Amino acid sequence: MLATAVIMFREVLEAALIIAIVLGASRGIVGRGRWVAAGIGLGLLGASIVAVMANIASSEFSGRGQAILNAVILLGAVTMLTWHNVWMSAHGRELSAEVKAVGLDVKSGQRPLAALLIITMVAVMREGSEAVLFLWAIATSGEQDLNMVMGGLGGVLAGIMVGLLLYVGLLRIPVRHFFSITSWLILLLACGLAAQAAGFLNQIGVLPSLGNGVWNTTNILDQSSLLGQLLHILVGYIARPSGIQIVFYIGTFLTILTLMRAYGGNRVRQAKAAGNPA
Residue 271 pLDDT > 60, yes or no? Predict the structure, then answer.
């Protein structure tokens, strides 16, 4: 539930931030609400199409093919989470400035109102499509449907509320603190998904186990317990991991963290060199 809530909160908040910036920068333009609302609707439609296609693809596989598909989905989610965290650490500030510039251009008449629709549609569809893939990966890891629905709704509502607070200017906490916390949670989630993908590939003989049950923490925290299941979904906790799962977990953690610090650090240094605040 918590993993689903974190993913949905992050995705909805990012889309809400784009919408809030567009609405704020285009304030006073007659009809802006209709264009933005149309962009949101089209973005949700596009994300829904992605969800339907993913469901159709899943129904075509069974047995060994299903295990391979599950592993591909999980690794695809890990790749997108990696790109997501690295890109946001390097370009988050620029994104805000670029979106605001588009809104101001529309307000001054340099761009048509359709620009509001396009930028909103792209933001909602991008975040919605990512959410579909991530939630599918979480479902593959064993999360129950009811928990996913509850967590998803909670994350969506929280993201919308924070977005509204940001729009009306009531939130004093810098947005970067929200993204910093969720970036770490998403980093651990990606590591867990990578380890689960390695488990699927090991089961069908594609990858070696490198030792089964390298350790056993069942007596300390049973993986089937409520807390154990929560940690399994959220951070990839496995009571009796194989060696290949440990390798994938640690490798994914170090890779994402290194990329985030390398690319994010470069952008901060460039901003300071240009005389801009980091």
Answer: no
